[in-house]
Give the backbone structure.
Amino acid sequence: MSRLATAEDGRDEVVWADGAPVSDLLGFDLGADGVDRSGLGALVNSALVAHRRLPMLDVIFDRAARRFSSTLRQLSGDNADVAVDNVSSARFGDFVQAQSPFGVIGVMRSAPLHGAMLIAADPAFTRQAVDLLLGGRRGAGREDDRALTAIELAVAQRLLQAMTADVDEAFRPVDRLSLGLERIETSPRFAAVAQETSVCAVAKFKVRLGDRQSRLAIYAPYATLESIESKLRRGFAAEADVVEASWRETLAAGVGEAALDVVAVLADRVMRIGDVQRLAAGDTMTFGPANDPRVELRIGAAAVAAGRIGKHGAAIAIRLDTPIDSRASALAAEAAQ
């Protein structure tokens, strides 16, 4: 219950009893540690966030995992396997706190998205990749409590560039993002692409290089994905590139084999119907100046090119003075059909 009380300065103030519904709503209940555990305070301070259902995002991460596996096999020449461990949602601040200070973070930026995403690798992944690419002892233990060297950072940058291209390809069935690796960072503070309370889609991957395991993660703020969120909500997207390429090849082959009637016009003039009806055998018709040997090529009623008449062997030939007007020829072909 609530009551109206009078403060010492004479102003009225509302005092709510403990356990009142409005008290729960606004969050006035302090726990033993002094942290607000109820109402709006609980919502703000909660580390658990609702996971948005974006079916195509799960498909994209699965495609990215398969591409990661192929890329690592090509680069390392050894057995490599990448699998999606978990796809969830988390606040960006939780990522900053959980990131190892000795890992590496790649900032992926896309102009169409007007934002950035992160790809993070733990120290074990970087050192395993260095061992495989530079001929180190496979299976040898390496210390994880030190900063990465310049060589290790260069190798990590090369790997993250290749993986950024894989992520970009994984998004192709949804949209063309033109993702690129903008930079790499070793400190999460310098890779802040969102506010700490911003919610991100988090995909965690298990990586097996040779006989050792490591982890990768992709962080995509929902604010960055907002422009394509409607496409990510779809339940299915075909392999657009494959379908469109096949359709374009079929169409191009069909158009290239189509037959058209090309007419070479030496001259033309406009006549009245009565004059045409009075024409008889032996009459003479005059056209343009005789000193103009130009010929006009037409498809239907559309002129597509011009040239000069000549002779090639026993055949009449025309040498083109202008290139074929592809737009006019396409319109003429459509009209002819």
About this structure: Residues 55-76 form the longest helix (22 residues). The CA atoms of residues 302 and 331 lie 8 Å apart. DSSP finds ten helices and twelve strands in the chain. The mean pLDDT is 76.
